Amino acid sequence: MIIPNKYYDLRNCLTGFGGHNISFNIFFNTYIDWQPLALKYVKICDYFNTFVTLNVEMGMTLNGVRPIPKFIFPLVLGAFTAVTYVGFVAVYTVQPQPFIDEIFHIPQAQKYCQGNFIDWDPKITTLPGLYLFSIGLLGPVSWITGRSFCDVICLRLTNLVGVAFTLSTIHKLLNYLHGERVDGWKLILASFNLGIFPVFYWFSFLYYTDVLSTLLVLIMMLLHIHKAPNFAAVMGIVAVFMRQTNIVWVGFLAGLLAVDAFGFHTLRAPIQTYVDVKKLLKRLRKLSTKPLQFSECLANIIADCCIYALVILSFCVFVILNGGIVVGDRDAHKPTLHLMQICYFCLFFLLFSPFYALEKLKPFISLCKKYPHILLGLCLVCALVVQSNTIVHPFLLADNRHYTFYVWNKFYGKWIAFRYLVIPLYIFGAYVIMSFIRHNSFAFKALYIAASIACLVPQRLLEPRYFILPFLVARLQMMSFSWKILTLEACYYVIINAITMYIFLMKTFKWEDIEEPQRIIW
Q1: Is 415 in a helix, a strand, or coil?
Q2: What is the pTM of this model?
Q3: H helix or E strand, kind and range, residue 403
Q4: In angstroms, how far is CA 61 from the centroid of its own chain?
Q5: What does the domain layout of the chain look like in residue ranges?
Q6: How is 130-179 classified by DSSP, letter by letter?
Q7: How far does Cα 169 stand from its chain's mean position?
Q8: 339-371 tens-digit pLDDT
Q9: SS3 at position 385
Q10: Which residues does 294 contact at the CB level (< 8 Å), separation at least 6?
């Protein structure tokens, strides 16, 4: 357990839970050795939290935000699950057979259900977390009832369970991050919006890894912010078993914890800004002249972060022994340098945050007018990336069951000029993303950018599912909770989901080598 969390909690208690830079920060930061003080008076937090809890139960909070009755969110969750189940049944009715990647996942899961853990489909690239979760959920039911529950509909149901838990986890995260300043009704609507985020929500109807992978990473983050790094690291291991790229988000949390530990053991204060980083580097230079103190400081930091480090080290050993990250079909999933993925993600972010983007349009234009040379430089860099790093995966051109096939063939592939015309949108998208995380610390911003790049850039295939976690992590940091925007966004997402559902149910076509009708998904 690391002590700085105690200090930060104490400071936040005395500064209205916000950690804002007011006189209390100055008071605490003047202490060279504040640890005994923090430990001596940390009970103030307990009394203060008790006071807040009593006020909440009486319908009041310190900042005037009235909480909602506790039964409201379970009702919303129940309604959400019921409506999702209706969509689930509709999808199963028209597509009772395994579809696209399900033709690999479902037979593999059924082998696991039969106790066959040896045979492995070489086309599957992910670790067996999805199948282990399924038999963990369905196995006890099968044992009790005496019949197998590993058919297509039951396996798909695991993602229906997963999407309900994801909505609950998102709500808990938003409550923790924003609950003291944002109305509870707004938080429920914001949670609902992210729960029906179209690219994510669609895969609750099929047997893919995306829903459970996202859920596990979000639970890991929830445990981390609740100062339970050991449990978070365990959840990180489970998340990696669901999808190997989740190791990036384990590294993201490890980086945040390491920065906190550095701040505590060197500056005796959190590292929030670029100025704090400069102070840290200056302090490290001084410590480097004192080998004993430097070694002690480094040992303390390693001890604080060792649990995440063990997970990352174990993954590195796996990669070395396995000869790569993926466990199958390596020819189709070779890591590559695909910088255009960053541009695609920025455009993707705009597409699914249009109402927030409209709020940022005016300040963005003002910034461009103020710094035209920077805008020009960014445009030139993007143009260079478009020119030299536009990579087209064979799957993108061959599989017309995905929306990206049509986007590419109607725009990017057909009109070369289009690739350059959307460069301003890439830059604007990056600006909007940064506006979502601008209130976070310098370390969070740097680590988020690094994690997003690590998730996306090695991927050769343009696949919207890869954008889900970078999108959600940024959106969870949003500070704007306008009723108007939240309502418009809810309607927007519902319409998109309704259209994609209609297309899947009603639009079919034939492939020469496959007897079943084909459909279109994300």
Answers
A1: coil
A2: 0.85
A3: helix 403-407
A4: 30
A5: 1-67, 72-258+306-322, 340-481
A6: HHHHHHHHHHHHHHHHTS---SHHHHHHHHHHHHHHHHHHHHHHHHHHHT
A7: 12
A8: 999 999 999 999 999 999 999 999 999 999 999
A9: helix
A10: 284, 287, 288
